[in-house]
User: Fold these one by one.
Assistant:
Number 1:
Amino acid sequence: MIKLIDICKTFVLGDQPINALDKINLDIHSGEYLSVMGPSGSGKSTLLNVLGLLDSPDSGQYLLDGIDTKNRSEAELAKLRSEKIGFVFQAYHLVPRLNSRENIELPMMLAGVNAKQRRQLSTVALERLGIADRALHLPNQLSGGQRQRVALARAIVRKPEIVLADEPTGNLDSRSGKEVVDLLEQLNNEGITLMVVTHDSELGARAKRQLQMVDGNIVQDKRHEPC
Ligand SMILES: Nc1ncnc2c1ncn2[C@@H]1O[C@H](COP(=O)(O)OP(=O)(O)OP(=O)(O)O)[C@@H](O)[C@H]1O
């Protein structure tokens, strides 16, 4: 489903180049559940951003469902993103002046989905995430856990093939965090590929495949042995 070949991404701060991704090679198959761990600055978020087509690599090849993502226009990338990828971020990234339903519908609106279909899909997502009674609330009228549910509803509303989650429980208390993880894992059980970046070793250990990054390299790629 995903193939990264010799992916490099360098940031230059002053005259100091930083190899955030240093020749990354990675194959991800449909339905996998991966965690990405590693020290701060090791390249985890950069990897997620490249996978999510939010950032482009400087060199190397990224194939998504066999499609070479290189030299694509922003419109083509946006289409691929909206059809195939859902994002969940630590800071939720909800639009403050839009209510839950509007936040969930916003990416569909930008993608040109008609109002009736948007309404149908957002209703299903709101119910699925247990926040139907919060449809008209603004983000600042919601708890952290509820905000993350809205963000999750927005991520899955168009049934993406892969959900990329960057510290999805980072701002949540342990109970809300567990609920969000349970929801993500349910999605994975239904076949969605799931990749979670986390500093939380307990959360990372739940994934069936665990990647460890150091200095822009994947230094460990461990799979759970079945009992
Ligand atoms: N936009 C940018 N400009 C300059 N340097 C950047 C930029 N984004 C990331 N970096 C650098 O690239 C390296 C990798 O950053 P990245 O955010 O991917 O690490 P991370 O493992 O996700 O860290 P953390 O766990 O702290 O979130 C870091 O050294 C960071 O300072």
Number 2:
Amino acid sequence: MRIYQSEDYQAMSRRAANIISAQVIYKPDCVLGLATGGTPVGTYRQLVEWYKKGDLSFAEVRSVNLDEYVGLSPHHEQSYRYFMQDNLFDHIDIKPENTHVLNGLAKNPEAECAAYNKLIQDLGGIDLQLLGMGHNGHIAFNEPGDDFGLETHLVTLTDRTIDANTRFFDNRDEVPRHALSMGIKNIMHARRILMVVSGEDKAEAVYNAFVGPVTTDVPASILQLHPDVTLVGDKAALSKLVEAGVPVCG
Ligand SMILES: O=P(O)(O)OC[C@H]1O[C@](O)(CO)[C@@H](O)[C@@H]1O
């Protein structure tokens, strides 16, 4: 596992975008696993900037997103499909048919999840999976206690996640209670994993995930068992790791 410590959010975003760029340059038709949430926004902004400068092309890239809220249409401003269009897809040359986000309006969520697992397999698996992490150590919407063996599945969000995501909605009641999410098994099958973390409020989760025991209580702790993980964080988010003496690259 490699840990890169960046001065601040902007530097962290640039570093993460560099890693994604390298993946796209080395394998132009790679499969990128993409994430939503506040943390990767700066990474996407940087990728768009480089694309606009002509440094990068996504023309052959395929993408699969981690999760989607149940009940939100792709046009809802808080849906993850909307987020991806708004933050990345609408600004680069990725082909619309090559971008994949779970359908939160699927009549049969189980069939939607099964089809998504097959899609990932048919694409040849994920080359690089970008991840953020929740305060309770969740990755995608895999909440504490969820089975590590799950593939894409229907999730009931925890109160803590609903609280954390209320900032994106008008009020707490509007936050969906369910989501469709890739499972830990899908994530662990990605060839490479890139996690981005920012802010002091994530420091404890980062510590628990990478220094604590591997346990379903902290879903991200499973990443300790993945052979190719890169963690990119700002100083604040990595502060407890550094205090504990975990070696980090500058
Ligand atoms: O980057 P943020 O906004 O802190 O979110 C962290 C995590 O929470 C989620 O947004 C889901 O609640 C994930 O998609 C993300 O990895």
